C-alpha cells in the first residue's frame, strides 16, 4: 500500500511538472479496479498482488474491451513476455527509476494525444459509418469494395485501397498484401509468409513486401512500447 502511494505521488509530481491535469485513483487489489466506475487512460499494475494478480486483472480488462494503456510494475523480469499477451504498453522493474518513469509518462501522453479518437467516415449508399481506427483489425479489398474488419464485425463500402493506404500510412497501418491493409497494433505474431492477429485471424504477407513489413513492424513496436 505504501509503495502504491509513493508511485502515485511520483506520477502526480511529474504530470504537474508538465502542466498536465489529471485525476489519479489508487486501488489495492485487481478486484477493486475491475469493480470501479469510469474508464482510465493509463493504468499502472503491480503483477504480484494478493488475490487476483496483475496479469489476470489485465486479461479481464482486455476481455471487456478495455483499451487503457497498461504499465506493469514488478520486482522481476519473469513476466515480460506474458505482458505482450495483454498488449502491455510498458514493463517497469522495481525499484522504479524516476528517469524511466518520466520517459514512460511522456510516451504515454504522446500516444493518447495521437491515437485516442481518430476515425474515418465511410459511406455505403445512404448509410454513413464512423470507423475508429483503433478498432479496425484490417481492411480487405474485393474489387471495388473495401471490407473493414473490426471489433463490431465487417462493414463493406466502395473505395480505393490505394487512397486508403496513403491516408493511413502514418497511422500504424501497413499494406502487407495487395488485398490487405493491416493495423499493426493488432498483430500478435508474424513469420515470413503470414501474420497472426490478436483476434485469431491469419493474413498472408506478399513475398515482395516481407522485408519492408519486418522493418515496419519493428519500428512500430519500438514506438508503441518495449522493455525498459
| Ends distance | 24 Å
Overall outline = elongated
- Radius of gyration equals 19 Å
- Share of residues in strands: 25-35%
User: Widest sheet: strand order?
Assistant: 8-7-6-10-9
Q: What is the string of helix and strand elements?
A: HHEHEHEHEEEEEHEEEEEHE
Q: How much helix, percentage-wise, in residues? A: 25-40%
Can you tell me the residue ranges where pLDDT is under 50 for at least 5 consecutive residues? none
Overall structural class, as computed from helix and strand content, comes to: alpha+beta
Largest sheet: 5 strands, antiparallel
Mean pLDDT: 86
Q: How many β-strands, per DSSP?
A: 14
Note the total helix count.
Answer: 7
Structure keywords:
228 residues; alpha+beta; 5-stranded antiparallel beta sheet; 14 strands; 34% helix
Note down, in words, how this protein is organized.
- The chain has 228 residues and is an alpha+beta fold.
- Helices cover 34% and strands 30% of the residues.
- The chain has seven helices and 14 strands.
- The strands form four sheets. The chain has a five-stranded antiparallel sheet with strand order 8-7-6-10-9. It has a four-stranded parallel sheet with strand order 1-2-3-14, sandwiched between helices.
- A hairpin with a 2-residue loop joins strand 9 and strand 10 (180-183).
- The longest helix has 18 residues, at 98-115.
- The protein is elongated.
- 23% of the residues are buried.
Amino acid at each position: 500500500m505504501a509503495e502504491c502511494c509513493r508511485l502515485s505521488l511520483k506520477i502526480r509530481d511529474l504530470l504537474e511538472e508538465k502542466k498536465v491535469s489529471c485525476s489519479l485513483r489508487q486501488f489495492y487489489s485487481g478486484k477493486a479496479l475491475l469493480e470501479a466506475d469510469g474508464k482510465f487512460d493509463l493504468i499502472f499494475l503491480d503483477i504480484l498482488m494478493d488475490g487476483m494478480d496483475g496479469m489476470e486483472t489485465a486479461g479481464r480488462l482486455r476481455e471487456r474491451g478495455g483499451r487503457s494503456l497498461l504499465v506493469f510494475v514488478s520486482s522481476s523480469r519473469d513476466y515480460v513476455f506474458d505482458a505482450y499477451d495483454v498488449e502491455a504498453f510498458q514493463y517497469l522493474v522495481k525499484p522504479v527509476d524516476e528517469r524511466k518513469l518520466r520517459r514512460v509518462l511522456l510516451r504515454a501522453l504522446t500516444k493518447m494525444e495521437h491515437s485516442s479518437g481518430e476515425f474515418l467516415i465511410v459511406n455505403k449508399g445512404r448509410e454513413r459509418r464512423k470507423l475508429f481506427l483503433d478498432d479496425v483489425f484490417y481492411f480487405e479489398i474485393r474489387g471495388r469494395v473495401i471490407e473493414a474488419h473490426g471489433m463490431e464485425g465487417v462493414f463493406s463500402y466502395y473505395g480505393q485501397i490505394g487512397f486508403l493506404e496513403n491516408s493511413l500510412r502514418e497511422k500504424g497501418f501497413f499494406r502487407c498484401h495487395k488485398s490487405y491493409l493491416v493495423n499493426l497494433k493488432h498483430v500478435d505474431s508474424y513469420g515470413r509468409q503470414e501474420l497472426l492477429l490478436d483476434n485469431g485471424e491469419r493474413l498472408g504477407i506478399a513475398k515482395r513486401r516481407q522485408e519492408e513489413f519486418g522493418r515496419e513492424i519493428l519500428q512500430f513496436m519500438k514506438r508503441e512500447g518495449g522493455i525498459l
